[in-house]
Design a protein that fits this description.
This protein has 822 residues and is an alpha/beta fold. Helix content is 53%, strand content 7%. This is DUF5682 family protein.
Length: 822
């Protein structure tokens, strides 16, 4: 918020040669470039002996790190309870935050800088630990920050009083577009990108700035202080009763600073607090407000932050709508609109949009014209956005959404030096990231790994270990081009809250390996579901945790021996089967899993047929998915077996039983028939016979529709099967046309679900085949029955022969070798 300058509890006087007497209370909007410029000008004019900043006092020891060359905003002070790292709060600062500007000015001028807000030891103790549920996590630490927008929004009230319907537009007109010394540009960036303060020189910064009158830099704060005082008189604490405690502590710290430095004190705080700090109260009264506050032991450090997390839409109470735009306004040396349009053009060109220099010129002219028509002093974000949409995006909001995401909000991720305090686990993670050249980035990106390379394999192990520790830096995704086990793809995005996750995981160990091992062993002991243990075993193999595997395997054997539920066994087997195939690529010994997996498969083969009877539709659908998963798992477990032999042979026998039993749910019978047909274990004539029985007039239509869904439903190629086997298509067509009208409505949802999953081209071809009607046996293309090219009964040898040269070329087999092989 914007604020005011107040000398103690009185309006500052002016002198002929210098600024008003202190102390100076500089009320600010926490992330506003206009406030930052005004604070810098006020500090240059006032030259205080000490700077007090709203923030946790425990952070005083970390202040010198702000001048470290490795510190690059946006950053945040992170405070967390030692015994409960999940109870945490952040104090973010961007390069254009007034607090950061004040901090850097103090460090650059050897002036003490101190934080004066309520200590984190108290503020964290006052927070109620929220139970972590779905969709919750360390974000709650950010949302529970001490500095939030009051229930009464002062900016909105002041904007409405001034006749504005948009508080952000009012703020831009009054503050952000207010020039500093005749220039709209930034007086406070040192050109390094670290948010340092480029001073105008000692001579120029003594007293008033060149060309201005003494005290001019402080004058805007006086007017805004009066406005905030009026608001506090009208609205009291603004719906934030805890502010009284915080403000009492701030007044105590202000008194201590005045006792040490006299009135030569500058305070940078939220403008809402200025009237409270200027109020006349007694020390005893302030101490009484602080008496009996709970307290916890805390640790503080600097952590990287992002512009995206500064945005109000992220849930941050003191957030702003456009951190990227504000950063640009603060950093632009001059001509901010022209420079902004150039940035937009560069972004759109990188996305292959045809944007020329003429577009930039026209967009600038349009933005300035809109500002003039709307009576604004300069073009703001609204005018520039409208101009970009009209000129560079051709009226489309699709490319404009990219501009909003990449530039208006922004993707900047700050950096902190290695000397910043951190838990041992964080230091080990940082070392691993550097060794593996895996830099944390705020923007989402995809990482494709080839596990045959040692570096990629190490990256995969690190990411899997972090997932075990609930540090969600990366999520596995389906990669393009290959389904081999030596390929992995991850979607990476580093969020500031992950530092809290790392701190929480620090209780398990001091390195990523030891912490992941300890947590995996603990989860294995505590797990009650067999599927949870098998999934954990898979994660241990992926993360290469050999010391945790014995504990996990013992838990797995115990749970498997006691669990007689076929559904649980079927849920557990796929994860074990996937784990067994990782040995070849990851050089992991998976022999310990083989015996357990084989035992589970045998028990599933025995118990599955009885479990598939007497099911309601929902239960049948769930078990159909388990049958498919077990089928794929057994294919991985018994890859070397001959057809009809070993585990695969026993599973084929189970599928035959399921396909032939009338008591089995129709969707499961249909799926079992399809699986056997696809594996070549069921002749086509037998599949047609089973379909004919399932679709016979004596079968209830709902059961027949469920069979069809199981046989050709989903995205498993059922549509292509019907296209290429017109006998099956004819059976389905004949059954469908024979369903009584009063029962058709009952089966329609199942049929829609079945056929709507097909690709549009498949549905179109099926429609053409049904419209053409069945082809009599032995019919040819030159007869009276036209046959769709490539389809029809029997083998089209002419078309098959046309493929042979291409196959030889792909296989690298000359014609003579192919003939010799025959």
């Amino acid at each position: 918020m914007s604020g005011a300058v107040v000398a103690g509890a009185r309006t500052p006087g002016r002198t002929a040669t210098g600024p008003a007497d202190g102390p100076w209370l500089l009320g600010v909007r926490h992330h506003g470039p206009g406030s930052a410029r005004a604070v810098l000008a006020a500090l240059r004019e006032a030259r205080p002996a000490v700077v007090l900043i709203e923030g946790p006092p425990e952070g005083d020891a970390l202040v010198p790190l702000a001048a470290d060359p490795g510190m690059r905003p946006p950053v945040a002070l992170l405070a967390h309870a030692v015994d409960d790292p999940g109870r945490a709060s952040f104090w973010p600062m961007a390069a254009f935050s007034p607090e950061w500007v004040a901090l850097r000015w103090a460090l650059d001028h050897d002036v003490p800088a101190r934080f004066i807000d309520l200590p984190a030891a108290h503020s964290l103790a006052l927070k109620e630990p929220a139970p972590e549920g779905p969709g919750e996590g360390p974000e709650r630490a950010e949302h529970a920050q001490e500095e939030v927008t009051p229930v009464v929004d002062p900016i909105r009230v002041l904007a409405e009083t001034a006749g504005y319907d948009d508080p952000e537009r009012w703020w831009e007109d009054v503050v952000e577009h207010r020039s500093s010394g005749g220039s709209h540009g930034s007086p406070g960036v040192d050109g390094t990108g670290r948010g340092g303060i480029a001073d105008d020189g000692d001579a120029a910064s003594e007293g008033a700035r060149p060309g201005g009158t003494p005290g001019e830099a402080l004058a805007p704060f006086v007017a805004l202080a009066e406005a905030m005082s009026a608001l506090r008189e009208a609205y009291g604490d603004g719906g934030q009763p805890r502010d009284a405690v915080r403000e009492a502590y701030m007044r105590i710290q202000l008194r201590a600073a005045r006792k040490e430095f006299g009135d030569d004190v500058a305070v940078v705080c939220g403008a809402w607090h200025v009237p409270a700090l200027a109020a006349r109260t007694t020390l005893a009264a302030d101490r009484a407000l602080l008496k009996g506050l709970p307290k916890v032991k805390t640790d503080l450090t600097w952590v990287p932050w992002t512009h995206r997390r500064l945005a109000r839409q992220s849930g941050y109470g003191a957030g702003i709508d456009s951190p990227g735009w504000y950063g640009h306004l603060f950093e632009a040396v001059d001509r901010p609109i022209e420079r902004w349009m150039t940035k937009v053009a560069g972004l759109l060109r990188d996305e292959d949009r045809p944007v020329s220099t003429a577009h930039v010129i026209e967009a600038v002219r349009l933005a300035e014209t809109l500002a003039a028509l709307r009576g604004r002093p300069l073009a703001g974000l609204g005018e520039t956005t409208d101009a970009v949409r009209a000129v560079m995006c051709e009226g489309s909001d699709v490319p404009l959404a990219l501009v909003r995401d990449r530039l208006i909000v922004g993707e900047s991720l700050g950096e902190v030096p290695d000397t910043a305090p951190a838990v041992p686990l964080q230091r080990d993670l940082t070392r691993s990231q550097r060794t593996l050249r895996l830099k944390p980035e705020a923007s989402e990106r995809q990482l494709d790994l080839d596990l045959r390379r040692e570096t990629d394999a190490a990256r995969s192990r690190l990411l899997h270990r972090l997932r075990l520790l609930d540090v969600g830096w990366g999520d596995p995704v389906a990669g393009p081009g290959s389904t081999g086990t030596f390929r992995e793809s991850w979607r990476l995005s580093w969020e500031p809250e992950l530092h809290v996750r790392v701190a929480e995981a620090g209780v398990w160990g001091t390195t990523v390996l030891t912490a992941a091992t300890a947590k995996a062993a603990s989860k294995a002991v505590a797990a009650t579901a067999l599927a949870d243990v098998t999934t954990l075993a898979e994660h241990c193999l992926l993360a290469e945790l050999p010391d945790a595997l014995p504990v996990v395997m013992k838990a797995l054997a115990d749970r498997a021996a006691l669990d007689a539920d076929v559904g649980h066994l079927a849920d557990a087997l796929p994860a074990l089967a996937r784990s067994l195939r990782y040995g070849d690529v990851r050089s992991t010994d998976t022999a310990a899993l083989t015996e357990v997996a084989a035992g589970l498969a045998e028990r599933i083969c025995v118990g599955l047929p009885p479990a598939c009877t007497g099911l309601d539709p929902d239960g049948a659908e769930a078990l159909r998915g388990r049958v498919e998963a077990v089928h794929g798992a057994i294919g991985l477990l018994d890859t070397g077996a001959e057809p009809g032999q070993g585990l695969r042979g026993r599973w084929d026998a189970v599928l035959h039983k399921l396909a032939a039993r009338d008591t089995v749910a129709g969707i499961i019978r249909g799926r079992a028939t399809r699986l056997l047909l696809d594996e070549g274990r069921l002749p086509e004539d037998e599949a047609a016979r089973l379909m004919g029985l399932a679709l016979s007039p004596g079968t209830p239509p709902a059961d027949a529709a469920a069979w069809i869904e199981g046989f050709v439903g989903g995205t498993s190629g059922g549509g292509m099967l019907l296209i290429h086997d017109e006998r099956l298509l004819g059976l389905v067509d004949a059954w469908l046309t024979g369903v009584p009208a009063d029962l058709f409505t009952d089966v329609l949802p199942l049929l829609r679900r079945t056929f709507s999953a097909y690709e549009p081209g498949v549905r179109r071809t099926l429609g053409e085949l049904v419209r053409r009607g069945p082809v009599p046996e032995g019919a040819r293309r030159d007869d009276a029955f036209p046959v769709t090219e490539g389809f029809g009964p029997g083998l089209d040898r002419a078309r098959a022969d046309a493929v042979e040269p291409v196959l030889r070329l792909l296989l690298g087999r000359p014609p003579e070798l192919a003939e010799a092989a025959v």
